[in-house]
Amino acid sequence: MNRIEKILEMLNTNGKDSFLQHALALEYIKIGDDQLALEQFVSLLNDNPKYVGSYYHLGKLYERIGENEKAISIYENGMVEAKNAKDNHSYNELMMAKEDLE
Fold this sequence. Notes:
The protein is mostly helical. It has one domain: Alpha Horseshoe (Serine Threonine Protein Phosphatase 5, Tetratricopeptide repeat). The protein is about 80% helix and about 0% strand. The protein has six helices and no strands. The protein has helices at about 5-15, 20-30, 35-45, 55-65, 70-85, 90-100. The longest helix is centred in the C-terminal third of the chain and has 17 residues, at about 70-85.
């Protein structure tokens, strides 16, 4: 059983576990399936907007597919969530990614 299959199996038993959803999206990126990764990250952040770690990866994914305005919006949303969570490292990482696009 490959990693994606294992994660999907765990998700079937654990419901909408944000960590598993994030891991699944990263696995999709590794195999080059940007569309499934995008769907997974969007679903994750719709269900749990406080999962700060996914904003950076989703923003980078939008950048890679040429959707820079969406990437900036995702970075900005992530910055708000990171600030609310007092996660300065993530806030700075998102701010630098956003500034690189502007």
